[in-house]
């Protein structure tokens, strides 16, 4: 298995794990993941900018974060499809071609949203065009996705639900800031990247 295929498998397993934590029978619930995607698309458009009556500059960092959120929902659609993990991995590897010939990112975004609404599926190829539009690499997608998931699990494990979790850690900095540092510190190509990241967060949290 290629390194990329292994990383895709890790993301799929993390997504299944998080969805299962919310609802053990999530596969049978028929959640409208497509709706979450198009709502995120609207939020993403606001971060990119579309208002001709005022000066706006694309906030590409925030756009990238919104794309990572959409990836969560897209993976959920793929996992709910009934296809095997190996089939989903192969499909993502085949269709996630990060390039676009569209100069206007907003047109690619509208095409992606329209396709999502038309059949309620996740269009990997169109998503890849959005990644290309803001220069989001697969490595950045992977790091961002795993980081967000591991932090969500960490919060749950340390009292997020009952209100005992501390969002501000060392030096008064928020957990998200520590997450960014921890992700940069570790080698994302490691097979145990998610476990190493969890341990790094734990070390920072208890000190």
TrEMBL record:
Enzyme class per UniProt: hydrolase
Keyword check for Chloroplast: no
GO molecular function: dUTP diphosphatase activity
SUPFAM superfamilies, A to Z: all-alpha NTP pyrophosphatases
Tagged with keyword Hydrolase: yes
Alphabetical keyword list: Hydrolase
Pfam family, one: dUTPase_2
EC number from the UniProt entry: 3.6.1.23
Protein name: dUTPase
Gene name for this UniProt entry: dut
